[in-house]
Amino acid sequence: xxxxxxxxxxxxxxxxxxxxxxxxxxxxxxxxxxxxxxxxxxxxxxxxxxxxxxxxxxxxxxxxxxxxxxxxxxxxxxxxxxxxxxxxxxxxxxxxxxxxxxxxxxxxxxxxxxxxxxxxxxxxxxxxxxxxxxxxxxxxxxxxxxxxxxxxxxxxxxxxxxxxxxxxxxxxxxxxxxxxxxxxxxxxxxxxxxxxxxxxxxxxxxxxxxxxxxxxxxxxxxxxxxxxxxxxxxxxxxxxxxxxxxxxxxxxxxxxxxxxxxxxxxxxxxxxxxxxxxxxxxxxxxxxxxxxxxxxxxxxxxxxxxxxxxxxxxxxxxxxxxxxxxxxxxxxxxxxxxxxxxxxxxxxxxxxxxxxxxxxxxxxxxxxxxxxxxxxxxxxxxxxxxxxxxxxxxxxxxxxxxxxxxxxxxxxxxxxxxxxxxxxxxxxxxxxxxxxxxxxxxxxxxxxxxxxxxxxxxxxxxxxxxxxxxxxxxxxxxxxxxxxxxxxxxxxx
Amino acid sequence: xxxxxxxxxxxxxxxxxxxxxxxxxxxxxxxxxxxxxxxxxxxxxxxxxxxxxxxxxxxxxxxxxxxxxxxxxxxxxxxxxxxxxxxxxxxxxxxxxxxxxxxxxxxxxxxxxxxxxxxxxxxxxxxxxxxxxxxxxxxxxxxxxxxxxxxxxxxxxxxxxxxxxxxxxxxxxxxxxxxxxxxxxxxxxxxxxxxxxxxxxxxxxxxxxxxxxxxxxxxxxxxxxxxxxxxxxxxxxxxxxxxxxxxxxxxxxxxxxxxxxxxxxxxxxxxxxxxx
Amino acid sequence: xxxxxxxxxxxxxxxxxxxxxxxxxxxxxxxxxxxxxxxxxxxxxxxxxxxxxxxxxxxxxxxxxxxxxxxxxxxxxxxxxxxxxxxxxxxxxxxxxxxxxxxxxxxxxxxxxxxxxxxxxxxxxxxxxxxxxxxxxxxxxxxxxxxxxxxxxxxxxxxxxxxxxxxxxxxxxxxxxxxxxxxxxxxxxxxxxxxxxxxxxxxxxxxxxxxxxxxxxxxxxxxxxxxxxxxxxxxxxxxxxxxxxxxxxxxxxxxxx
Lengths: 493, 276, 257
Description:
The structure holds three protein chains of three kinds.
Chain A: H1 9-22, H2 25-33, E1 35-36, H3 44-63, E2 72-74, E3 86-88, H4 89-99, H5 104-131, H6 140-163, H7 167-182, H8 187-195, H9 204-234, E4 238-239, E5 248-253, H10 254-279, H11 285-288, H12 307-318, E6 324-326, E7 329-331, H13 335-360, E8 368-369, H14 376-395, H15 398-405, H16 409-441, E9 454-456, E10 462-464
Parallel strand pairs in A: 4-8
Antiparallel strand pairs in A: 1-5, 2-3, 6-7, 9-10
Chain B: H1 3-26, H2 31-54, E1 62-65, H3 73-87, H4 92-109, E2 136-137, E3 154-159, E4 170-174, E5 194-198, E6 210-212, E7 217-219, E8 226-228, E9 234-237, E10 246-247, E11 249-251, E12 257-259
Antiparallel strand pairs in B: 2-3, 3-4, 4-5, 5-10, 6-7, 7-8, 8-9, 11-12
Helix pairs in contact in B: 1-2
Chain C: H1 2-26, H2 44-57, H3 59-62, H4 80-89, H5 111-123, H6 140-150, H7 152-155, E1 162-163, E2 169-170, H8 178-187, H9 202-216, H10 231-253
Antiparallel strand pairs in C: 1-2
């Protein structure tokens, strides 16, 4: 039987053609055999990656139509409620994409949904890595790259939604400018150089554009490549389990199994994004109207940033009216929640592997993961931190909450000022306690105990034991010699 | 349903959806249909791929050794030796230091194009376009007269000669005469109940666009800073740390509202040199 | 497998139901257009009828002659027909007791009774008349611009309303008739500022009215409008529906140990 008769003739011929020129067969053979663990939580990073791919694909399409210019123009497109209105070319081109380019709105909405879900997947992925302690040696580099990717993605999202130059995002740019201004010593220069002068002005659109479509995506793509290459080199971690050790890896081969599942996931991710892109409206910029960079005197009630910046906005809202004024200098109020808080947040995130090591004194390399219950203090810190930023995020909607529940925004703000300290402390202790209970009892809090306890009788049969029926003193408990039915220990364990 | 049948159904569904998408597009497009059909087409292929992967004979747990990751001692020493070739040779060390110095100076000079990115702050943050005698005009350039506003009314205004100056935006409010409690030195800044404040919030610069007429408060929609209009726009609640700067007003002979001068302090959010 | 399919269907179905509710909630029933009443055409019979109604329901808070009662109700002298018609036709008045904010509720009077009460209140003193808005007046884009500058800071760009201080709020505008919008602009009810004819002339007012009317069913070509509350419900959808569906997918694809 010739090889051709078993199918895949063209693919095989193509592979040989390349191999004769590049000599990649050895690498390819090893690569196809590479093992990837199959746990579902290891695919969350892939969700984020595929969202990034869709961001690039839809983003390239949008660049064919979007014009990053702040020159003023009179709108003549098909949206009646803005006919004859003065607006920037950038905003007008965003309206054209939404109203006058066929399938343009779906592309634009897919792009925006992908950005929101990209950030959400990054958060969940980061949590998975944190709570399973995958950042431990030798994976500190990838942790640092990961935190950097998170920051870059957040910045890119901010620049991206500000490009449309609508009223809502323009308000956000103003906030960013003011936070830069509040930085001590260098703030004024930083703000003027980055934004091209005093705000409001027309410089920022072209600068944001190049950052958003070239600089930051290139950095993200490069770091993502390094992230994957390091993962490839070090091999993925795995959960503890029967037959798994620090020195082996269990899972599926890259080819065909893992590749098929991964590509299938890509299609599903893209499918969800496409469905959202057409069925659920996002960022209806035509309702907000254009941002006027000259007068900049309009604003809308219920001004919120996209969710992943919401924690920052919430911090700005609940931080009290404190400011430092001394010797003629001012450390302005927005500096503390707007610059210092994120600085501390990301600073701690960056050094966490080394910070933790100081306390655990555990410098050994790990390829096996912790379960959250195996490290109650780390999990407690993680839960406390998550709840802290969640409270801040919810506080970013204090005016919306106030109008929905018909209470004063002052009350909501004061409530969050208390919750932001109380809830993380409570979360720490509750989580730590839950982890300790879980680790000790080996009983899942949602699942409960599975099966029943049985006891061997002297006659050789089994009898069921009640949970509150303790073994009698002196009773024979199973020993290897006494129990021929117990399976032998696994080789090498 | 056996696996192959399920996969086939999914792929047929996906194909039909993709064809439907093409038809919708040709017919003029409709976002909801586009999204739904594209979603079905993509998800169908994705789920079919997963089902197909599960049916593969090689699927299942495979186990292998990881292999060593750390450095090979031999290689590490060899690399260290090569590094030392450059640093350890007599005479080369001081030259190396000069290389660092030259490179560092070059890197520093490469920073200077950054200076071209924007103008120096200078007085820009401290002054606005308001001058003595500047007439107030609204966002459309129409002058603000004494009969423009009723008691309890408000409008946004700019200087007539600089009606597109974003840093000069003010909010003009007309309250009942005598209701204002002027700050010392500002007794003649608010004639006949007309009072004007900078509209730029001293927190992070949002326009303070909400006027609550019954409690005479200006509210900023961004982070809920609240200012008492009758008390020099003192911040009553929220993260703002300073009052809104007040623009001194007077009424000229023709009944137009006119500024008596610029603000007596910088407008907008705080910055390092604000008090100087 | 079956259980997961059911969960997936439940999630999709639940989301669709949620979306349908929000869409349904925002497409509010159109309030019946109140018969516009004018002070110039009101006669003594209307005023007398209004006086009779007033004595029954209004004197406790607004006084025997409409002079107001401290800590209960403001004076009605000079508030004009526009005020009376606005408050009565939106159901804001009568109020059961003094509150921080008069809220829109079920209208308590018939159109004839409202006409009579309006005539009586207008007779107490000169005040803003009921505005006349010709149906063809006003320009949508101009209304958009004026709305953005004057109304959006409190009522939001989409007319969804917003919070003010002291537990008072700027209400959503989806239930307001064109006449009620015009009246509110002219009288500045409650916390709202006053925009008289010198601030916004009748043509501009007509434009704003047109735009607010448009906001009741704005262009939602992108899909479910999420009540036009902005990035917050969008973030919710991204996490719960978007990432939720994807996480369900990976749980199906991968193993659990």
